[in-house]
Amino acid sequence: MKLTSIISVNFNQPEVTLAFLRSVKNNTTGIPVELILVDNGSREDHEAEFTAAYPDLKYLRSEQNLGFAGGNNIGIKIATGEFLLLLNNDTEISPNLITVLTETMNNHPEIGIISPLILYYDQPDTIQYAGFTEMNYLTARNMGIGNMEHNQGQYDQDSRETGFCHGAAMMCRRSDLDKTGLMAENYFLYYEELDWCEQFKRAGKKIWFTGQTKIYHKESMSVGKESSIKTYFMTRNRMLFIRRNTGLLNTLLFSCFYIGIACPKQIFTYLKKGRTDLVKWVFKGVLWNFSQSKTSKYLGFKI
Questions:
Q1: What is the pLDDT of residue 299?
Q2: What DSSP string runs through 68-119?
Q3: Looking at residue 219, what is its pLDDT?
Q4: Which end of the chain has less neighbouring CB within 10 Å, N or C?
Q5: Residues 115, 169: contact at Cβ < 8 Å?
């Protein structure tokens, strides 16, 4: 069995990360793995605690928060495994995760990225992800397959192509990165894994889901259900994704829909909920796209 490099990013979540490290340690016995943890500008350095929980840990610390893509890219650059498994630090894994993912990729060389079934950690009988539908590029909308369904094993035998992978858990081959490149770092947060899937598709690879293994996800622990940072980057990056992955005509049509319909609808929803504090972040997210190019280098964001 070939070496798998597991890469995860920590940002001010030492207890969550420690639980993740213990989960990896307890569920990879006899499996060749290297575990890489990137500390993404956390206020405190918990290297000693992390290495105590996982003695063979490869620990890297960035003084600046580089976002989801930037943090993972640091880990990817030093990874030595044939397979790269990116896992959120707020996940816990199942014992057969790496075996199933690597065997599926070996059996299907056309796969570029694969994600497993994702269940909610605090509601383990509820499904978060069993694949995605294809994107409607005029609205930048698609749908999650299985989302919020009661898990009755209905996806346990699935192994199929899907629209997009899920950033909480996705595996690729190191060799494919020569064609696809690393994740785009100018997203900072949200949509970067969708953009990466587009890069794999353009390289002739398929995006895959398997329900034959699973992880448990502690969703939204670092950002929250509704917050200024989430509103800003979801608004900003939905438009950036279209700019980066479609042509001029589609971008113009999408922009008319987005600015004329989708954003006003979102603002009205916030006003109805009494969340007037979030309205300005919708405007800021849209305006960023008119002041920056789609390839602008991201210069950092302070939370």
A1: 53
A2: HHHHHHHHHHH---SEEEEE-TTEEE-TTHHHHHHHHHHH-TTEEEEEEEEE
A3: 80
A4: C
A5: yes
Indicate the burial class of 94 (C-beta count within 10 angstroms; 0-12, 13-18, 19 or more). middle
The span from the CA of 207 to the CA of 199, in Å, is: 11
- Strand, helix or coil for residue 195: helix
Question: In the beta sheet, which residues pair with residue 111?
Answer: 206
Q: Is the Cβ–Cβ distance between 135 and 141 less than 8 Å?
A: yes
202-216 residue pLDDT tens: 999 999 999 999 999
Give the pair of three-digit tokens for residue 67.
């976002």
Q: What angle do CA 152, 156, 157 make, to 5 degrees?
A: 135
Q: Residue holding tokens 């899937």? A: 197
Can you list the residues of the chain whose pLDDT is less than 50? 221-223, 302-303
Q: Which two tokens stand for residue 298?
A: 């991201």
**Under 8 Å CB-to-CB from 185, ≥6 apart: which residues?**
66, 67, 69, 70, 73, 192, 297, 298
Residue among 191, 184, 200, 183 nearest 295 (CA): 184
Mode of pairing for the β-strands spanning 33-40 and 58-62: parallel
Specify whether the CB–CB gap between 301 and 188 falls below 8 A: yes
- Residues facing 37 on adjacent strands: 8, 59
Q: Residue 296 has what pLDDT? A: 79
For 1, 75, 282, the CA distances from 265, given in Å and listed in that order, are 51, 39, 11
Instruction: Record the tokens describing residue 157, joined without a space.
Output: 């035998």
CA–CA gap between residue 94 and residue 214 (Å, rounded): 6
Give whole-number Cα distances, 290 to 228, 243, 294, in Å.
20, 11, 10
Please state the length of the chain. 303
Please tell me the distance from the alpha carbon of residue 27 to that of residue 96, in angstroms, as a whole number. Answer: 8
Q: Which residue type is seen at 258?
A: Y
